[in-house]
Design a protein that fits this description.
heterodimer, A: alpha/beta, 10-stranded mixed beta sheet, two-stranded antiparallel ribbon
């Protein structure tokens, strides 16, 4: 699993780092901490002064925070145990052989300059991320300091699943809205990892477009429920008419992590427009997981 | 002319969709792949022959993946084991490496990620073979 963590200098980013470190302790994921700054630095006088830049110092702090979860080097996936010489680009047309140290799993800290959402989405595309994790404040507007709507834009444009982390508390349940037979295997797998991380219960919500479809949906949801009960996970199911989706999500959004499957063939995507997803991300009091 | 044998891979996962996806991708890369959905069947197969690489899920009905990989390593220490799991925990990751697995991948993952793990395992196997040849 490859996790991309989008960070800025705000306090909520610290909690995001903790959340991802806990997930990575379980999953041994390849992790990239990405800091984004809107102001491109002037590199005409070299790069040595860059280490004094606030974003660089902040990212160094996040690196230490993350690695503090993996103090036992013998069992850390990120302990630098493998050394080898690699050619590293050092400027236009120039490559230099340098000794590069890697762990069993990749852990990178990167900084990009430019509009936050655009840079995060480019990184996710290039690195083939499975999950983007982004924090935001819990106030009326889910905002980033330098690009207010960045979390919303990331959710809308991401090629993969996105976890918007809003709060520093253990969720009491995960409320998961799925289409009856179109949900992707990857989405179910991501829910499994979140359930394992939080050791919490699962509410499965199936969606039906009309009454006659409900039986079919019900059947599929029973199959998914059996899968979870076989895994000894406490789960329950309800089937909801799509017309009730708005109200249901608004009620559920404050009680636990809310997960919406928004894949390409998603029924939720058809009835729950991008703007409404944006509103959910902005206004939900708890964390939101958009599955793809 | 010396016949070059293909690297053999056994895949065990109780999700048929996962097995089929991996089989198709790895066969395209030229590997010899056998898939199993039930650990008892996979266990029977590894009793009959050794595989170069075993890819196994952990949480399964009956014989669990940890017991299965322990048996695989006991019978054939040269077999490289790659764990794939949907319910990853710190304990299972640590235990897997203590038992000598080559890599530990949490689901979901892209095909490129498991292909990369398989290629690295294959390289290690070939290096070990060339040293003993």
């Amino acid at each position: 699993m490859r996790i991309l963590v989008a960070l800025d200098a705000s306090p909520y980013s610290t909690y995001v780092v903790h959340e991802v470190a806990r997930l990575s302790m379980n999953t041994w994921a390849d992790v990239t901490l990405l800091g984004v700054d809107t102001k491109k630095p002037d590199l005409s006088h070299g790069t040595s002064w860059l280490s004094d830049e606030p974003i660089v110092q902040k990212m160094q702090g996040f690196r230490e925070e993350f690695l503090s979860y993996f103090k036992d080097e013998a069992s850390s996936p990120y302990a630098k145990t493998r050394h080898r010489y690699e050619l590293v680009p050092r400027g236009k047309g120039l490559w230099e052989e340098m000794c590069v140290c890697r762990g069993r799993k990749e852990f990178r800290v990167r900084i990009r300059y430019g509009p936050a959402a655009k840079q995060v989405l480019s990184e996710a595309e290039e690195e083939q991320s499975d999950l983007i994790v982004v924090g935001c404040n819990q106030q009326e507007q889910c905002a980033w300091a330098q690009d207010r709507n960045a979390p919303e834009k990331i959710v809308k444009g991401a090629p993969c699943s996105v976890l918007v982390v809003k709060e520093e508390k253990k969720p009491n349940k995960i409320v998961c809205c799925l289409d009856h037979d179109r949900v992707s295997q990857e989405s179910l797998e991501l829910i499994n990892q979140m359930l394992t991380l939080h050791q919490t219960n699962l509410a499965l919500v199936g969606l039906a477009e009309s009454d006659h479809l409900k039986e079919e949906v019900d059947q599929k949801m029973k199959e998914i429920l059996k899968y979870y009960t076989d895994q000894k996970i406490k789960a329950w199911v309800c089937v909801l008419d799509v017309t009730m989706l708005d109200k249901f999500i608004a009620d559920a959004a404050g009680k636990g992590i809310i997960a919406l499957w928004m894949g390409q063939r998603s029924l939720i995507g058809k009835f729950f427009s991008e703007d409404r997803v944006g509103k959910l991300v902005r206004t939900a009091r708890s964390s939101v997981l958009i599955l793809r | 002319m010396e016949e070059v044998s293909r690297t053999s891979i056994l895949i065990l996962d109780d999700e048929p969709i996962v097995c089929k996806r991996l089989k198709s991708a790895l066969e395209k890369k030229g590997y010899e792949v056998e898939i199993f959905f039930r650990s008892a069947d996979a266990f029977k197969r590894v009793s009959e022959r050794n595989f170069d690489i075993v890819i196994t899920d952990l949480k399964m009905e009956g014989l669990d993946g940890m017991t299965f990989l322990t048996e695989v390593k006991k019978r054939s220490p040269r077999t490289e084991v790659i764990v794939i799991t949907g319910f990853a925990t710190m304990e299972t990751a640590k235990e897997s490496f203590q038992k000598g697995v080559f890599d530990f991948l949490a689901k979901p993952f892209k095909l490129a990620e498991i292909q990369d793990a398989v290629e690295r395992a294959e390289k290690k196997i070939k290096e070990a073979r060339s040293k003993t040849a």
